[in-house]
Amino acid sequence: MKPVLRLPVQIGITTALAVVLSFAIPVSVDRKAYARAVVNYVNNPSAENEAILSAERAQNQRIVRTTHLEAAGLLVVLMNTGWFLTRKWPRKSPSPD
């Protein structure tokens, strides 16, 4: 494979691996507003409380998605940096003269 084509392939593979790894790890979001909405809905399951709970759940899902994407970006940078460093590292130690 030509060196020109190697870089996009490498970045594509590491991006795919990073996305898979980041979405495989569960994220826990602890927000008081969501807990309050759940308690209010359990105590009084009205349409208004259901709408509030849906909005809070959507906010939690946005936070989780953002966290996954940030982790994927960080993993892409770390994996590509590691790949470049190992490619540049000398394979053999120099023999003493």
Which features characterize this protein?
97 residues; elongated; mainly alpha
Write a structural description:
The chain is an all-alpha fold and 97 residues long. The chain has one domain (9-78). The protein has helices spanning 3-24, 32-43, 47-88. Helix 1 (3-24) runs antiparallel to helix 3 and helix 2 packs antiparallel against helix 3 (47-88).
Question: Count of helices?
Answer: 3
What's the gyration radius in Å?
23 Å
Weakly predicted, low-confidence segments: none
The total beta strand count reads 0
Q: Class by helix and strand content?
A: mainly alpha
**Helix content range:** over 70%
Order of helices and strands: HHH
Distance between the termini: 36 Å
Largest sheet: none
Please state the average pLDDT score: 88
Beta content comes to under 5%
The best one-word shape is: elongated
How many structural units, i.e. domains? 1
Oligomeric state, counting identical vs distinct chains = single chain
